[in-house]
Amino acid sequence: MRVHVFSIPLRNTFRGINVREGVLIDADGKWAEWSPFVEYDDEIAARWLRGTLDQLTENRTPVRDRVSVNVTIPEVSPDTAYELVTTSGCKTAKVKVAGSSSLTEDAERVRAVRQAIGPQGYVRVDANGSWSLEEALEALEILGEVGLEYAEQPCASVEDLARLRKELAKSGLAVPVAADESIRRAEDPLRVAALDAADVVVLKVQPLGGAAKVLELAEQLAPRKVVISSALETSVGIHASLKAACELPDAPLACGINTVWLFTGDVVRNPLIAKDGELVLGETPTPTDELLEEFAAPKPRARWWKDRLQRCRERIKEQA
Fold first, then answer.
1. pTM for the full model?
2. Reduced to 3 states, what is the DSSP secondary structure of residue 153?
3. Residue 204 catalytic?
4. Which of 204, 213, 225, 243 is catalytic?
5. Annotated binding-site residue? 106
6. Where is the Mandelate racemase/muconate lactonizing enzyme C-terminal domain (predicted)?
7. Active site residue 96
């Protein structure tokens, strides 16, 4: 088994980072990705590693060969957002909000996206749990004017998501609520269902421990609609998410796995980037030696990742 540590710059600051790092594992020609964000502790990172190991051992059969995807819009100017949508070929756009930009700036970006995608397209917003309940109500009243497919993780806690759904209904605001962090970072991901806190569930393969876990959760969280989303991975990791989306019994909503274009490069010659708003399932992308070398992490960072990988391997063994 060979381990390669990558470091790839992003086109725009995304999720507070401008370089994406992680590990690619080559197990006798079968590739998988492990790339938990650097701020996560070993307990969370070990869960991601289970998702990586699932990539190396799974043998499930897909029921479809392609899925529709959204274009993800970072916190960019309205003009840039408009251009990204129009050149993406996607009929769905997810707009990052509630980060470093103000609500006014968020609203301008969302309006530009709606204009670009047209009245028949779908617009989503993702706040990454940044709003309080009161802030979410204020923001969604403004952002909802363009017509939103849903608001992803507007508040941090499951309890606030449940309260928000009730307040939105009481106010007559037709904005469905989606849960992401409340599932993938929760001790009890089914609490979202217990409190009826979401209309849509966003499931991420690597963070949740693999496609088998994602398929199980999709069934347990039914009848809520499912969106398979990425964790900002290379084409190797994205392929695992794409395969999981193709394995779901019911077709998911447009998936959030069209994120490789956010990188300035990739470890494979033909990156998994959507065409005409779709990703088509094929063989697992194989990194090339040249690109692995081009995007190899500096030695100190490579050592940090390999040490982290060893700790997480040991943690999994202890929990077995």
1. 0.92
2. coil
3. yes
4. 204
5. no
6. 78-171
7. yes
